[in-house]
Amino acid sequence: MNEEKAAKKATPDTTIDDLISTVWMAGRNCDREMYDDAGDEINRRFAILREKVNAIEEVCSWKIDDDGFWMTSCGNAHCFIEGNIRQNKYKYCPYCGQAIKAVKG
User: Fold this and answer.
1) Does residue 5 belong to any structural domain of this protein?
2) 29-50: b or e for each residue (b if 16 or more CB lie within 10 Å)?
3) Is-above-0.70 flag for pTM?
4) Which residue of 19, 51, 60, 102 shows the fewest CB atoms closer than 10 Å?
5) Which of 12-16, 36-40, 79-83 has the lowest mean pLDDT?
6) What phi, psi does 95 have (nearest 5°)?
7) Which of 59, 55, 102 lies closest to 78 in space, CA to CA?
8) Which domain range does residue 33 map to?
């Protein structure tokens, strides 16, 4: 592999735009190896992104603890001075924006 190709290898700091530019340049230069490497890296990164998006919950589950705090599935604790979720007309989590689902237990 020559120095130009070595310089084009993706690193964690390489942006998607840089990879797309590499794909275009490789296509113009008929460099199949560079084209395949950049395309594989783009596909790998999109697969990671797809996994993260699929892992996002569509609701935020709220569960009350023994001290009266509502523990949220997005990792926060919320305390109402008076009432509960319904009485305070909470429909969406103020921390993550997802619809609230109260769970028992």
Assistant:
1) no
2) eebeebbebbeebbeeeeeeee
3) no
4) 51
5) 12-16
6) -95, -45
7) 102
8) 12-55
